[in-house]
């Protein structure tokens, strides 16, 4: 069994690997209220960033921006905006990136996006064809902007001062350890990742996967091909058989048969959740032990299961504070 960060224990003062979370924008007012509470709880775990998905085609644009603004105004967490090529022309994406930057969002996850189920694979693609082009566009928008802007001073109506404009910090892209459903081979996925790094991406976040070796093998092949950016493993604790089935449908990534069977034969909801959480915690511990630079946890807009995973592998807030105190003492 792999050593977990908590097994490594009190004598280990290596910095804790960063944790980040992913949310999707809420569809109703009630869901928006609940999401505010979820963000507050996730923020307590001091994530490196929280990313917010974007409906390809821009359908969720305003709702995504509202969630990102909530984070800026009510927490000290770095918000990361997902952006897609599908449904956006070059000019539209340019305006959107400016709008996000002006709102103070400086981290992006640049994606191609998917056409609606059953549609032509290139449906919705205008003149912005790939995630690599979107990465370039994000950098170009920044270069074209005036480096300084007049901004208002909080509490002093009508008074402005010159401030440096926010710059894109993280420009992340997706990676597919078990292969993108439309890609011919893992080699093609690695080439796509390398192209995105060359275009200016400085972080990759993986599609979910179920076996540590899928992630670790992919990273090894990516490094051999010249990819140097950190590749964050994307992990999701799946707490019901229905959710596992839906995820498999959405991602095309087949889960281990044993996990499917175990979740299905377990009649009790709490025991199902326990199965999903302990599976995710073990996977997280294994990839960290194999050298993963951190963890990106898919939350499904619920904080309980992901925070449980974080606690179990010893990356919870209490462990961090203890670690920081130990480090300060030395
Ligand atoms: P690219 O880097 O352009 O391509 C990725 C791979 O797919 C490459 O191997 C490429 O060769 C292959 N490929 C792509 N298109 C084709 C094609 N037409 N024919 C053959 N091969 C092809 N989607 C959303 O809509 N909104 C989101 O917020 C969102 N968030 C995501 C977050 C993460 C971490 C991940 C992993 C995925 C997310 N997606 C999201 C899904 C993503 O948009 C799709 O998986 C999309 O199909 C690929 O996007 P990409 O940015 O990786 O594309």
Describe this structure in words.
The chain starts with a helix and ends with a helix. The strands form 2 sheets. Strands 9-8-7-4-3-2-1-11-10 form a 9-stranded parallel beta sheet, with helices on one face. The chain has a two-stranded antiparallel sheet with strand order 5-6. The protein has 12 helices and 11 strands. It is α/β, with parallel strands linked by helices. Mean pLDDT is 89; it is low at 1-11. Helix 7 (212-224) links the parallel strand 8 (203-206) and strand 9 (231-232). The chain is 46% helix and 16% strand. It has one domain (19-150, 163-329): Alpha-Beta Barrel (TIM Barrel). 39% of the residues are buried. It has helices spanning 5-8, 29-44, 61-74, 90-103, 131-144, 186-199, 212-224, 241-251, 257-265, 269-289, 304-312, 317-329; strands spanning 19-23, 50-52, 79-84, 107-111, 148-153, 156-164, 170-175, 203-206, 231-232, 234-235, 295-298. It binds flavin-adenine dinucleotide.
Calculate the terminal CA-CA distance, rounded to whole Å: 31 Å
Number of domains: 1
CATH topology: TIM Barrel
Number of helices: 12
Strand content: 15-25%
- Stretches where pLDDT falls below 50 for ≥5 residues? 1-11
How would you characterize the largest beta sheet?
Answer: 9 strands, parallel
- CATH hierarchy: architecture: Alpha-Beta Barrel
- Helix content, binned percent: 40-55%
- Class derived from helix and strand content: alpha/beta
Give the overall average pLDDT: 89
Q: Spatial order of the strands in the main sheet?
A: 9-8-7-4-3-2-1-11-10
* CATH class identity: Alpha Beta
